[in-house]
Amino acid sequence: MDALNEILAFLAGPTPQSWIDRAAKPESLPILLIDHAHCEKKAASTAMNLMFRYVDRSDLLNKMSRLAREELIHFEQCLSLMEARGIEYGHLSPARYAQGLRQAVRTSEPGRLIDLLIIGAFIEARSCERFAALAPCLDDELGKFYRSLLKSEGRHYQDYLGLAREYAGEPIDERVAYFRALEQALVEEPDPEFRFHSGAPSEEEVAA
Predict the structure, then answer these.
(1) What is the pLDDT of residues 173-208, one digit of tens each?
(2) Superfamily holding 27-207
(3) Mean pLDDT for the chain?
(4) CB contact at 8 A, 12 and 180
(5) CA-based nearest residue to 126, from 101, 157, 152
């Protein structure tokens, strides 16, 4: 659990208990799994986009290639779990979370790359934290699945953060602190829609 403790120290704070309570409701399971599948697919796409944009960075290419493959395996695992439970995969409006982080990305290089890598680290870290928080609240099969993701997702967080430090050429502590505060605000502020990366449920969500 050392990796999880490292991730908890990296994040500004844990997921609000109100989100965990909402996610643990049986009626939340279809949206949770569908959006989780979307998140895995988007994570693979993000890694591929970085590979296409930054073709001259061999360390990035190697790490993002492996990450994309692992995320697509997780996507397939989500689809398999959903199919076994009669849950149909379909479109969902995305959470505001990732877009809220990316709105703060700098437009010039290398700042843009550094910010995208830092954001990738926070998304992977938050996913890992939520897998750990959800695992005890779900049935045995899902709990085992989410615990199995902790190792790879923890490594993804480390890959993103390590690349950000490598390519910055200077300390990134201030930029990490900026996104840490932004990320925590996004998970704590009331959110009108329940998603895997949504914020605390709004009053309307709690009543749902």
Answers:
(1) 999 999 999 999 999 999 999 999 999 998 655 555
(2) Ferritin, core subunit, four-helix bundle (1.20.1260.10)
(3) 94
(4) yes
(5) 157
